[in-house]
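[READ THE FOLD]
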Amino acid sequence: MAKKLLVGTDIFDKLIQGSGYYVDKTEILYELVEEMPNEVTLFTRPRRFGKTLTMSMLENFFDIGRNSRDVFEGLAIMKHTKFCEKYMNRYPVLFISLKDIEGLTFEKAYGKLKTVIANSCKKHAYLESGENVLPSDIELFRKLQYETADAPNVENALITIMRMMNTVCRMPVILLIDEYDVPLAKAHSSGYYQKMLDVIRGIMSILLKTNEAIRRTAVP
């Protein structure tokens, strides 16, 4: 089948299954786990250098809710047979993008943050009925889903979701945060940088502390 130029596509499985041209970067999966033992990895690349596509590739490879062998068939990572058997589709993955967290006012941007978190809760709605999940987490999960949670709980939202994923899947979670810098860049240009910085700092500081629910964190 002839390859296609799928311009603007940053969803890995859609690109591969759509026979789009792809510069094979899957070797980074092996390097990330076997050669870079850090619990947190920051990908620093210029804009339009494929950071979101890389995040999507990581999600496809690790996500326990997927069956990705056909997607990665023929790509470089498949030569690491034992590695693939050990890690492919073995971990719960929480992938969140902050690219839409913007607005002319802090209130507008903060509302979009709550919506992004709510959509993540909807994506993982199975957690609400998961076995052994704390009733308090279920109550908070519902508030996050309906965008009624207060500010401290919004800042702790990803921790809550990961704790629930860890309980249900009985595996530590791989966290992928895409476009983490967008809210701050937009806030700076619209005059509410300090307010947004406090929010993002609160989210990040909690995530990067010792957390038994996290297996790995990647931030581009």
